[in-house]
Design goal:
alpha/beta, three-stranded antiparallel beta sheet, 369 residues, nine-stranded mixed beta sheet, 20% helix
Length: 369
């Protein structure tokens, strides 16, 4: 017979964890034990996918067995998993095992009390969902209970018509897809159905974090959007206003698999390299309109950095098949980006696979109330 958690709990005074460790230290231990992490026992996500990125190379896991120890521990820890960790929502292009367009907090039966336990909600969304009715419906769920932090991530393949490299556009005051011919000014009002106007439904939000990602060759387009974002302010439903904290803007870059606009996602097995001959020597820098064949090493695919192509193998940039030269070129790429104020993130998401790769440029903007 199942026991109710409302049943009186044993004080557990015989346990040193309860009787000797102060509550504030014990709570810190509980938080460490209940922090989400990438599950090392889970299968890695396929490399050439829209959802694989730094911090998301495997499914995330929270070890909740601690909550099953006893009623006393349960009462001290039951709210920690929801309040401590990001609640991640995927609106299209989600990892395997997650039902498309289904998020637990979207379920109407989900009680307001449970929603109130959530502190951080992270949305991976395509641009059409953000600018359409998707985000409007999402914000409508938070009129009575809202997280304190909302993170919205637009990945390279989430932008409108990324497949055809259409110019990046984003404007929170325009309804629907933003027009590249006419951007709103700081003095312009929000159009009623614009995504920026949807924050008026929300009460209690303290921070909005917008993560915008594109490939390196479109860096200037993204920087133009970031420049206009300084004039964006979002009114909330509790008479507070979210304003951009310019000093907290972060620019980062990472190396990941190139995404084929025509072919979509590919299996990892399609990129096996059966030849490892590293004997031939070539120039350190090499420009080419496409992949090159280097003797018996097989075809090496290319990476574009500021309109110059390089070769890529494993997690190293290569001009040929020798990793020593690849490390040198990778350092040069890092130095070039860091000279532009971009922090380069090491990422082994393509380790061991001779695939075509891209440098992804990410700008993180933070608004606070």
């Amino acid at each position: 017979m199942a026991l109710s958690i409302d049943h009186p709990a044993h004080p557990q005074l015989g346990s040193p964890l309860i009787s000797r460790i102060p509550p504030e230290i014990r709570n810190h231990i509980f938080k460490l034990a209940l922090t989400a992490y990438e599950d090392p026992d889970a299968e890695q996500y396929r490399v050439m996918t829209h959802y694989r990125r730094p911090g998301f190379t495997r499914p995330h896991k929270i070890d909740t067995s601690l909550l099953l120890t006893c009623r006393h521990i349960y009462r001290e820890t039951s709210k920690i998993p929801a309040s401590l960790n990001e609640h991640i929502s995927w609106y299209w292009r989600e990892p395997p095992g997650i039902k498309k367009n289904h998020v637990p907090i979207d379920d109407r039966p989900c009680s307001i009390i449970r929603r109130q336990e959530l502190r951080t909600v992270h949305i991976f969304a395509q641009q059409f969902w953000l600018e359409g009715y998707g985000f409007a419906g999402f914000t409508g769920l938070w009129e009575c209970a809202c997280p304190t932090t909302l993170i919205i991530t637009l990945r390279h393949s989430d932008w409108w018509w990324w497949e055809s490299e259409e110019p990046l556009t984003l404007d929170p005051k325009q309804e629907g897809k933003a027009s590249i011919d006419k951007y709103s000014r700081p003095s312009d009002p929000f159009e009623p159905s614009s995504w920026g106007n949807q924050f008026r439904k929300i009460k209690g939000l303290r921070k909005l974090q917008l993560e915008l990602e594109t490939v390196d060759k479109k860096k200037s387009e993204l920087d133009a959007i970031v420049g206009r974002a300084g004039g964006w302010e979002f009114a909330l439903g509790d008479d507070r206003v979210l304003r951009l904290s310019k000093s907290k803007t972060r620019r980062t870059a990472w190396i990941g698999a190139w995404l084929d606009p025509q072919g979509g996602e590919e299996d990892d097995d399609d990129h096996d390299n059966d030849d490892d001959d590293d004997d031939e020597e070539h120039d350190e820098e090499h420009e080419s309109p496409g992949p090159s064949t280097t003797g018996d090493t097989g075809t090496q695919d290319s990476i574009t950095l500021h309109d110059k192509q390089y070769y890529f193998k494993g997690c190293e940039l290569l001009t040929h098949s020798q990793n020593t030269i690849g490390a040198t070129l990778r350092r040069k790429a890092r130095e070039k980006l860091e000279a532009e104020g971009v922090s380069f993130t090491e990422d082994a998401s393509v380790e061991g696979l001779p695939i075509k790769a891209s440098i992804y440029y990410v700008v993180t903007l933070i608004w606070e109330a």
